[in-house]
Amino acid sequence: MPDEELQIDSLIVYKNQPGRVVQTGKKLFIELPDGSRLSVRPKDVILLHPGPAPVLSRLQPPPGDMQTACELLAGQTTTLPELAELVYDEFTPATAWAIWQQLADGLYVGGVPEAIVVHAPDVVAHIQAERAAKAAAEQQWQDFLGRLQDGRYQPEDAGYLQELVALATKQRENSKILRTLGQSESPEQAHALLLKIGYWDKMVNPYPQRLGLPTQSPNYPITPLPTEDRRDLTHLPAFAIDDEDNQDPDDALSLDGNRLWVHVADVAALVPPGSPADEEARARAANLYLPEGTVPMLPPVVTHMLGLGLDEMSPALSFGLDLAADGGIVGVEIVPSWVRVTRLTYEQVEARLAEEPFVALYALARRFEARRRENGAVFIELPEVKVRVEEGEVVIRPLPPLRSRALVMEAMLMTGEAVARYAVQHNIPLPFTIQDPPDVDEREPVRPSEMLALRKRLQRSQQVTSPGIHAGLGLNLYAQSTSPLRRYLDLVVHQQLRAHLRGQPLLDAAAILERVGTADAVIGSVRQAERLSNTHWKLVYLLQNPGWEGEGVILDQRGNRSVVLLPDLDLETELYIKGSPPLDSIVALASTGVDLPRLEAHFRA
């Protein structure tokens, strides 16, 4: 507005407030409704009326009919003075301010004081409808927030609550809801609020989704088992030994004289490199084992077709191992085969260890274990449990250190060493598993606290393309190869072995390294999801069993707090215990509460 149009007592607008000019010049001095005076630039104000402006708090216009005036001028352009004359029959500071307020409101008119566009009735109706909808939405939002603060929700709130679900599962990083309520925008806080209002209950496990893992089985077409020559080993009794609830039996044992046969599900026969199922398995890296169920890396039909003992005869890739008297592997034969498998639990085999062939099988396992001990293998025996969700109840079963478990484990390790040696001998690129030696005392740990300390010092095992020592296992060469239904890199080993046996091209070291890198990027999340999920369900168990009491073993001291292992739950906790009992002391504990979203269990000694 040119300087000459502004004069003392003119009515202006400054930052949407009325003002009165009290001094002109290069700088304007204006007075605002609260009596304050400001120095502003002329270009920062809008002239509404030349004045004289009355006391600003008395800018009350006379009665007028804005709606009728706008109907007369619908779609036309006018000026502020002209519109004030039409609506109020006069152009005064008060009517000028009233027109400005209508202009700022935007319902009937738009534009600027020099060119006011008068809205047609249909435009007005549209704006009114939009405002009504916005007001209704705001009221719904406020009602929703009120219900949250009262700890409840209604079915119509589901749309709003998806924001909290997305944050609780880490599908988004912020939340308008939590921000409005003045709460931290974290997955744990979102989880806590969903529990508080009852939208989620304690049976919701958010951790697989939070870690970006698929929770549904893959579904890719699988071709029929190819016709090929297979060694008939069905005359040898074969035993798939696993937990009672195991659903994917992928290894079995036979004894043929002094030769140990380890039969492994022949997954590579159905899942060649580069197939859709192979690509999906690579992206998943491994089965995801959760207390509420297993999310497989391969389509379930693969297990149905290849699981050992699920049909009368099963196709396998069989490894014939010959052991020397000192437990060393002196011969290995690898053949596609047909086997006839009987499924047994660890407990059933434990009860039959005095029978053949289990006597001989266990003797071979002990011989191999003794060799590993001589080579510096690390043995840690801390309590383990299996957590399952069965019909809405959490069941925790201890896993006792059965000899039958050791038998199976040693047979699998024998196979891993034999496969690694075979691959080196025949120049087959494989993902080898290595582990650097731990910085530990020479003596074996005996007490629980020593075992925990040793476990903390163990180096992480790695899968690489060059063979090397696995210090923790006491093996100079090792390649995981007995779980191709469960672990992707085991499947890669089988793909390479089958290609070698059939004289087909092998994946080179670069292709193996690419697969190792892809699997390694995912497997950490898989194992973390399993750990967090197990802890989640252990805390749900405590919620389902209020007042739980049991024993704890003191494993470590952190300041004035003790690190305590609860063997019955395989759960560690920290708490203050008066007198700071020595390590490995047994203390009686009672549960005092659970913070499920933060995975915290509280106990008193």
Would you write up a description of this structure?
The relative contact order is 0.08. This protein folds into 5 domains: 1-58, SH3 type barrels (Roll); 60-119, Arc Repressor Mutant, subunit A (Orthogonal Bundle), CATH 1.10.10; 123-200, Arc Repressor Mutant, subunit A (Orthogonal Bundle); 231-536, no CATH class; 546-604, Nucleic acid-binding proteins (OB fold (Dihydrolipoamide Acetyltransferase, E2P)), CATH 2.40.50.140. α5 (158-168) crosses α7 (187-197). The chain has 605 residues and is α+β, with helices and mostly antiparallel strands. The strands form 8 sheets. Strands 4-3-2-1-5 form a 5-stranded antiparallel sheet. Strands 9-16-15-12-11 form a 5-stranded mixed sheet, covered by helices on one side. A hairpin with a 2-residue loop joins β7 (109-112) and β8 (115-118). It starts with 10 loop residues before the first strand and ends with a strand. The chain has 16 helices and 26 strands. It is elongated and about 115 Å long.
List keywords for this structure.
605 residues, alpha+beta, SH3 type barrels, Arc Repressor Mutant, subunit A, 5 domains, five-stranded antiparallel β-sheet, five-stranded mixed β-sheet, 26 strands
Which helices and strands, and how do they pair?
Blueprint: E1 11-14, E2 17-23, E3 28-31, E4 37-40, E5 46-49, H1 66-72, E6 77-78, H2 80-88, H3 93-105, E7 109-112, E8 115-118, H4 121-149, H5 158-168, H6 176-180, H7 187-197, H8 207-210, E9 231-232, E10 238-242, E11 251-256, E12 259-265, H9 276-284, E13 288-290, E14 293-295, H10 300-306, E15 314-323, E16 329-339, E17 341-345, H11 346-350, H12 358-374, E18 385-390, E19 393-398, H13 403-425, E20 432-434, H14 448-457, E21 462-464, H15 488-501, H16 509-544, E22 549-558, E23 561-566, E24 571-575, E25 586-595, E26 600-604
Parallel strand pairs: 9-16, 10-17
Antiparallel strand pairs: 1-2, 1-5, 2-3, 3-4, 6-8, 7-8, 11-12, 12-15, 13-14, 15-16, 18-19, 20-21, 22-23, 22-25, 23-24, 25-26
Helix pairs in contact: 2-3, 5-7, 12-13
